[in-house]
Amino acid sequence: MVKHRVASRSLYLPVTVAACALAAATMSCGPTSTLPGTALGTYNVTGTLGTNTCGSSLGAPSPWNFTVQMSEDGTTFYWDPSTGTELSSTMASTTKVSIASTATANVDSTDAGVEGPCDLSSSTSINLTLAADSPPSSFSGSIVYTFAASTGASSTTDCTDQLAASGGPYTTLPCTASYTITATHQ
To answer: What's the pTM value of the predicted model, to 2 decimals?
Structure first.
């Protein structure tokens, strides 16, 4: 089971995740890690866009550069990127970890807080292979973002206004944006 420790953030999560995760701006190193367990350090990550069925309106950069802080506590691995929310998962081995997270939010909210008809799910899948040294000098892997209308949140979910044909950012729903990533320890 994935555990989340979310800092104060807007409930406009899927759009926020897309904007932050796919932002082209270079991020700086954050403050000292407050992650549980033994700190592995801060890593400079470079992502190369593989597929993007969501469309160019998402602004998915390639390359995508960001930093991430990581730690281990027993077999629990913690991932805290400069571009998003801290995630954790059980490690498959000392060098392999997979993290999956899904969040659903209403993306049609008005400034007055009135919710519209689109509940959008944003799923993140991170698969990493860590170098065998301690702490790992590098890692490689993949990050896949999937966006889909969430029919489980409401029986009246209608996300057609999020499609590019209606002026929204997505070419189609569901859609994915996938990255191959490599990283080195700072």
So the answer is: 0.78
